Amino acid sequence: MLILRRTDVTEVLSGREAEIIDLVADTYRLHDARQTSLPHSTFLRFPEENHSRDRIIGLPAYRGGERPAAGMKWIASFPGNVAAGTERASAAIVLNSLDHGRPIAFVEGAVISAKRTAASAALAAVELTTERPPGSVLLIGCGVINLEILRFLAAALPELREAALYDTDPARAEAFTARCAEAAPRVKAHPVGDLTAALGEHRLVSLATTAASPHMDLGACGPDTTVLHVSLRDLTAEAVLDAVNVVDDADHVCRERTSLDLAQQAAGNRGFVAAEIGALLRGTTTLPRVPERPVVYSPFGLGVLDIALAEFVRDEAARRGLGVHVEDFLPA
């Protein structure tokens, strides 16, 4: 068994944003071509009131293609950690051999999860703004995920020069400025206090909050706005139904009381989903643009992305001699 710590994962993935985006794009294409196996995620929740916002999610997945991989991500989300000064999410990924089925690697998964999420958002930003790439982005939620999203956006969008930062805690947005300067030095980051005004000023918006229920609409956005709805529960059902919606997988994202799940319940169908990102990348569909309607990208966060990236990390770590080998983890 190879155990890869956060330091190992970080060493392998640092500075490889373009490669990670390409890997995510290839995995989406494989998923659209039905060369993946992706059961629904399992949500473990708790009956106690003090754990009402907490959950642990299991995401099993298989990626086919030239570099097949199988395994499972087990990720905990405890929003209360943020106030305590620790990260909201923690995760581990188990990879299994496709020769004999035995587990072959145990990988720290929070870094992988954040980077595949950011790569997915940046990939969608490029794909959905091809005709007019944005020069600025509004980041709503000043945490780990939006920091990674800014890093990947800076790598994928050469025109990006400005990042407006909004958080319900103004001090958090102010402190976030320095972290953004380190992650994306050529992008000028600055906090904003008026969310409504900021939504009207920026054509690219990234939502990465800890919201458990809808709290905003897109009425203040301009008609040419692309929204990366990464945290999935920020937008009202009405806002979703009034947008042009792109998802990673309609069956996965319209569950567990996401904004799209609520929109599905309100509409009685999923007709509001215009396209899946894999089909757009493969060119098997096109995105119908509707004047005066923003485009909203809502990725559920497919476990197959974690498995694909974890296998990439395992392979590179083995080549570099990183990690800890436990020879007697399994019987001989």
Descriptive overview:
The protein folds into two domains: 2-112 and 303-325, ornithine cyclodeaminase, domain 1 (2-Layer Sandwich); 121-298, 3-Layer(aba) Sandwich (Rossmann fold). Helix content is 37%, strand content 23%. The chain contains twelve helices and 16 strands. The strands form two sheets. Strands 1, 2, 3, 4, 5, 6, 7 and 16 form an eight-stranded mixed sheet that branches. It has an eight-stranded parallel sheet with strand order 10-9-8-11-12-15-13-14, with helices on both faces. The termini are close together.
Index terms:
2 domains; ornithine cyclodeaminase, domain 1; alpha/beta; Rossmann fold; 8-stranded mixed β-sheet; 332 residues; 37% helix; 8-stranded parallel β-sheet; 12 helices
**DSSP helix fraction:** 25-40%
- Mean pLDDT, all residues: 96
What structural class should be given to the helix and strand makeup?
Answer: alpha/beta
Order of helices and strands: EHHEEEEHEEHEHEHEHEEHEHHEHEHE
